Amino acid sequence: MTQLLVTTTENIPGHPYEVIGEVFGLTTQSKNLVRNIGAGLKGLVGGEIKDYTKMLEESRDVAVNRLRDNASAMGADAVVMMRFDTGSISQDMQSVAAYGTAVRFITEDLTTDNA
Which InterPro entries is this protein grouped with? Predict the structure, then answer.
């Protein structure tokens, strides 16, 4: 996993950049039988379904790590404007997408041309 900068903002103070392109990190998780039974019972009485919350948190982490890896493979230094999207594929599957814009920092050339 690559630890490059991922931010939800458009600008990174002190770091001008050029856009490389869009980048994604995706994962799909399925709920197991035990979670489904527990969720069904919790649905009857109300309240947070902690197993589902944990599954979504883990899915989010996987999606962001894949986003970082994909951005790094593109030669990016950072990802700006990162967002999440989630959705149900079926009653038993949940997808999480992390997406944003891969960017490369612009470094100033400090050499002088005396020609």
Answer: UPF0145_dom_sf (IPR035439), UPF0145_YbjQ-like (IPR002765)
